[in-house]
Amino acid sequence: MDVTDFPDDLVQTQAAWNATYQALAAPGPRDTTALRRRLLLLSVRLWWHPYWETVPSAPAARCELRHLTSADGAVRAA
Predict the structure, then answer these.
(1) Is 69 exposed, middle or buried (0-12, 13-18, 19+ CB in 10 A)?
(2) DSSP letters along 29-69, please?
(3) Which own/partner pairs from 37-46 qualify as long-range (CB within 8 Å, at least 24 positions apart)?
(4) Using one digit for the tens of pLDDT, what is the confidence trace for 32-60?
(5) Coil, strand, or helix at residue 78?
(6) Where do the domains of the chain lie?
(7) Residues 5-14 as b or e (16 or more Cβ within 10 Å = b)
(8) Are the CB atoms for 1 and 64 separated by under 8 Å?
(9) How far is 24 from 61, CA to CA, in rounded Å?
(10) What pTM was estimated for this model as a whole?
């Protein structure tokens, strides 16, 4: 799958999800309730994004998006 296939808002939402998850997983996170709520909101936005209806294999595309926006993937895409 080509990296440019993903809409910008979807990539940004996944990156925000990753950052929120990392903040929640860090030792001694502050305001865990707000972080969990944000993670839930971002999860819903990711899951129901209209882009997933346009790809033949949504599970593979979701995996590619997560890989793209991971710490290693973000360095490679930049």
Answers:
(1) buried
(2) -S-HHHHHHHHHHHHHHHHT-GGGGGSS-HHHHHHHHHHHH
(3) 42/13, 42/16, 42/17, 43/17, 45/13, 46/10, 46/13, 46/14, 46/17
(4) 999 999 999 999 999 999 999 999 999 99
(5) coil
(6) 7-23+30-77
(7) ebeeebbebb
(8) yes
(9) 25
(10) 0.83
